[in-house]
């Protein structure tokens, strides 16, 4: 199958960090137009002034009839709502994708009401920053990032190819296909558990202790707590939508901590070394760059 021609109209819904970065990166594909949709008029004015988008709207509407590809860079629940609210506006044969980091509920809900002439291809770019907003958006945020597609039985070869090729051409280093169930299972460990651990570490002592320790903070503390600078609204939604998977991972993590505590209580240096060496070996094999 030949390369897809991105001489099309693309709409990005939600012009924040991820949506703004998408709009910037998509310029390299030379689309006919990039339309920005956001509830915040100031954000739209900024994006238009900087040439990130060509047209702006504060909500969906009939203009979507001319849009070939819609990228919803919204919270999961807002993505579902946007699609539902604009069913009568989407183009026949149009493709919708998302950026949500939880997939089961999003895929199930959208596919439950989406008509057959519109296709939803669930996508998850594994990228981001601690800072929020279009001010921090950048086309290179996708460079060498992993991109996950979670296909359903309603997807076509054409729809999957378009999103796969888009991901690769904006710079993603790999595109992986897994079921929505498997995606949420793995993401609970690789993304949500680290955020839960970082938040728990920061919250494990009272304010007086935390305020007195600034002179004792080094690289390791900064590294492990970096993601504790968290968007509470978004991550509360993500955790709740994947609570069963995350609870499983928290319980596994607690057992791992219990083993470490057992070694310390028993003064078992050999056991402690084994824990450390096993972790070092696993990380080396898991993270290759």
TrEMBL record:
It comes from Clostridium lapidicellarium. This is Prephenate dehydrogenase. Belongs to the prephenate/arogenate dehydrogenase family. It holds the Pfam family PDH_N. The chain crosses the membrane at residues 6-29. Pathway: Amino-acid biosynthesis. Residues 8-289 form the Prephenate/arogenate dehydrogenase domain. Keywords: Membrane, Oxidoreductase, Transmembrane, Transmembrane helix. PROSITE patterns: PDH_ADH.
């Amino acid at each position: 199958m030949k390369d897809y021609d991105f001489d099309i109209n693309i709409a990005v819904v939600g012009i924040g960090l991820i949506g703004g970065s998408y709009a910037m990166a998509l310029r390299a594909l030379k689309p006919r137009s990039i339309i920005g949709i956001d509830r915040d008029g100031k954000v739209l004015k900024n994006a238009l002034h900087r040439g990130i988008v060509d047209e702006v709207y504060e909500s969906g509407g009939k203009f979507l009839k001319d849009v070939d590809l819609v990228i919803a860079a919204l919270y999961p629940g807002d993505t579902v709502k946007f699609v539902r609210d604009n069913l009568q506006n989407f183009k026949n044969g149009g493709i919708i994708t998302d950026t949500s980091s939880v997939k089961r509920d999003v895929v199930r809900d959208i596919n439950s009401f989406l008509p057959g002439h519109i296709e939803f291809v669930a996508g998850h770019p594994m990228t981001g920053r601690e800072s929020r907003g279009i001010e921090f958006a950048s086309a290179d945020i996708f460079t060498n990032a992993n991109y996950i597609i979670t296909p359903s039985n309603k997807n076509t070869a054409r729809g999957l190819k378009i999103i796969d090729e888009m991901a690769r051409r904006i710079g993603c280093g790999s595109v992986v296909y897994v079921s929505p169930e498997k995606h949420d299972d793995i993401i609970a460990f690789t993304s949500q558990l680290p955020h839960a651990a970082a938040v728990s570490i920061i919250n494990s002592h009272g304010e007086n202790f935390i305020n007195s320790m600034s002179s004792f903070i080094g690289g390791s503390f900064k590294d492990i707590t970096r993601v504790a600078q968290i968007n509470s609204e978004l991550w509360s939604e993500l955790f709740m939508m994947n609570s069963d998977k995350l609870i499983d991972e928290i319980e596994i993590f607690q057992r791992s901590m219990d083993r470490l505590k057992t070694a310390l209580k028993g003064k078992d240096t050999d056991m402690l070394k084994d824990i450390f060496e096993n972790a070092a070996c696993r990380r080396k094999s898991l993270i290759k760059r």
